[in-house]
Amino acid sequence: MSASDESLSLTATDLRLATFRLARRLRRHRAVDGMSDAQLSVIGHLRLRGTQSISRLAECERVASPTMTSTVNGMVEQGWVVRVADTDDLRRVNIELTEAGHRIAEETVRRRDAALAQDLAELDFTEEELATLRAASALMRRVTDR
């Protein structure tokens, strides 16, 4: 049986508020303080999906290609990404993470996981409550992965 419209609406509101607040809290923890959210998002995208074209990155980040070009230019200057020729179409250029970019991604994930684990520890959740949070995380991934 499907959920009621009212239940869906209430759940959407609660989930949006909690997700937004958690994301904002975690954004403070990053490997490089001067890195923008947009740059960190590109690093995360490249880490998960591998080498991408500027147009594909722009599409995934929902920005215009010139905006993504500007973001990538700053990242190239910092040594976090490099431009590489596309093997199928030499006219096209792709963006690839450097070792420094990989280290930033790994360190940012480590810092965010540690900060969240500390928050959870301070709230003294039971094992059952932690299992509930893990189950909720799986359901949230179903929403975001579609």
Give a quick set of tags describing it.
mainly alpha; three-stranded antiparallel beta sheet; 8% strand
What does this entry look like structurally?
The protein is globular, with a radius of gyration of 19 Å. It has helices spanning 5-27, 37-49, 54-61, 65-78, 99-122, 127-144, and strands at residues 52-53, 81-85, 93-97. It starts with a helix and ends with a helix. Helix 2 crosses helix 5 and helix 3 crosses helix 4 (65-78). The longest helix is centred in the C-terminal third of the chain and has 24 residues, at 99-122. Strand 2 (81-85) and strand 3 (93-97) form a beta hairpin. It has a single domain, classed as Winged helix-like DNA-binding domain superfamily/Winged helix DNA-binding domain (Arc Repressor Mutant, subunit A, Orthogonal Bundle), CATH 1.10.10.10. The protein has six helices and three strands, in the order H-H-E-H-H-E-E-H-H. With 146 residues, the chain is mainly alpha-helical.
Q: Could you give a quick summary of the protein structure above?
A:
The chain is mainly alpha-helical. It has six helices and three strands.
Query: Structural class given helices, strands, pairing?
Result: mainly alpha
CATH T-level fold name: Arc Repressor Mutant, subunit A
Query: Taking Cα atoms only, what radius of gyration do you get, to the nearest Å?
Result: 19 Å
The succession of helices and strands, N to C, reads HHEHHEEHH
CATH homologous superfamily heading: Winged helix-like DNA-binding domain superfamily/Winged helix DNA-binding domain
Whole-number count of domains: 1
> Any idea of the CATH class?
Mainly Alpha
Q: Give average pLDDT, whole number.
A: 93
Approximate helicity band: 55-70%
N- to C-terminal separation?
Answer: 21 Å
* Beta content: 5-15%
List the strand order in the largest sheet.
1-3-2
* C-alpha geometry: globular
- Count of individual beta strands: 3
Spans of at least 5 consecutive residues with low confidence: none
Largest sheet: 3 strands, antiparallel
* Shape-level CATH architecture: Orthogonal Bundle
The helix count comes to: 6
